[in-house]
Input
Amino acid sequence: QVQLTESGGGLVQPGGSLRLSCAASGSIFSWGVMGWYRQAPGKQRDLVARIGSGGYPNYADSVKGRFTISRDNAKTTVYLQMNSLEPEDTAVYYCSYRDYKEYWGQGTQVTVSS
Output
């Protein structure tokens, strides 16, 4: 089993920054893919960014140039640095880990508002 623990959400003004963290514990494979998804009220859960063990990230078009995903050397913690935040980024952000199955964190609220 895998457990994912997220932190770092909150309220920020437009143009501000936040950093999300997600620590994975349990049966983690270094080749597993970790990522962040988000779900706004009334919308589906969408990919924000993901990163494999090789360190090559993928981003949603809407966050390219503003968000950066990274992973620690132990491959058990993933970060999402979010800059130039916009009200449209408001959502619950979920951490994901995928090997033979996909696991989800409990979600952390990010609210961008003046």
Observations:
- The CA atoms of residues 40 and 91 lie 4 Å apart.
- The two ends are 40 Å apart (CA to CA).
- The longest strand covers residues 18-26.
